[in-house]
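Postdoc handover notes: sequence design on the structure in folder B. Input tokens:
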């Protein structure tokens, strides 16, 4: 991947109590149409989530994130959404929803190295 690539990314959020609109950033999804690139990284900080809600189902969150990742990867066993083309998968994954797993609105950028950009965004948005 050479050159500067236009990409979009969104931050993935765990929302333990939707009514209170509190969240913990748990991942990042990065998409580049021209490169047919869509990848996600995630990590669940259980302590931070528990600080917002003692009874939030962490196992269910892990299941949601694994399914999110499989759709992103286009896994054959993940249903019709995973079989969509890359832009459609990104749009579906970043659609506004009111659930315990949400994403921010997509943000654009340019990158000469999409993998490095994904790692940097993950470190900045999730690991800090």
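Designed sequence:
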């Amino acid at each position: 991947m050479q050159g500067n690539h236009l990409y979009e990314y969104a931050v993935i959020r765990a929302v333990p109590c939707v009514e209170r609109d509190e969240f913990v950033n748990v991942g990042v999804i990065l998409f580049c149409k021209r490169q047919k690139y869509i990848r996600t990284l995630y990590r669940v900080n259980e302590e931070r989530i528990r600080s917002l809600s003692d009874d939030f189902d962490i196992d269910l969150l892990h299941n949601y994130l694994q399914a999110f990742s499989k759709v992103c990867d286009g896994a054959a066993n993940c249903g019709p959404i995973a079989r969509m083309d890359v832009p459609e998968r990104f749009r579906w994954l970043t659609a506004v929803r009111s659930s315990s797993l949400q994403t921010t609105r997509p943000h654009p950028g340019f990158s000469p190295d999409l993998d490095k950009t994904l790692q940097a965004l993950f470190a900045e948005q999730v690991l800090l």
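Context for whoever picks this up: Residues 5-127 form one domain. Don't rerun without checking with the PI first.
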